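Give me structure tokens for this 231-residue protein.
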Amino acid sequence: MKKIFFLFVCAFFSVSAIFTEQKVVHSINLSLPYEHRTVEIEDIFADSEDNPPDTVTLNYFSANFNWNRMAIYDSGFSFLLGMGIGFTTAVPQAFFTDFLSGVRTDIKTGWGFAPINTDKMILAFHGFIAVNLRYLKAEEERAQTGSNANYTTYAYHIFDYDMPIGIDGVFVFKLGDSFALFTELDLSTNLFGVGMYDADDHGEGGSEGYEFTYGFTGINVTPRIGICWVF
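Here you go.
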């Protein structure tokens, strides 16, 4: 019984050491995500047997304002949680209209290790998973079939949800007792994603609707820079 109790106490203090926070970093930063993916897009109003999905490329360029929290434990392990919101543009090829813009929001979490953790600087690496949501829109005038004088205004919309997985590197350099510079670089691919694309002609009878999916495709690169406080 004493041996069991002794093993339990040892296990408790071992786990406590692993998950006892040594430092906590709170950051506000700006990120500039570039996201590339190949999607299969399908007309939701057409017979799928007669209209197989098209494969097209879709690129997003964004600017996000973010909050990050990174905890570093006595064991050297680190945990990262972040979220952000910002502006995004889509520069699609072929199938979509030329240019769409809108909002992007995301949340990210990851586990890793901090090989450098001193009073002056921190360097940590994580494996992470994230969730991104985007809503974009644009308007365009199209000439009506058989007429050079009349135009119909189409409103385009994209709603896109995806879950990327990847790795990141975080570097913190202290300028004072707690104030520091914060930089981060994320590299990821898209585990899976789904979305909708539509062209609405405001009741003129020519509206179009499509859905698109993708998985294990593309590369996303997200640099971040900002300030932080180390506690």
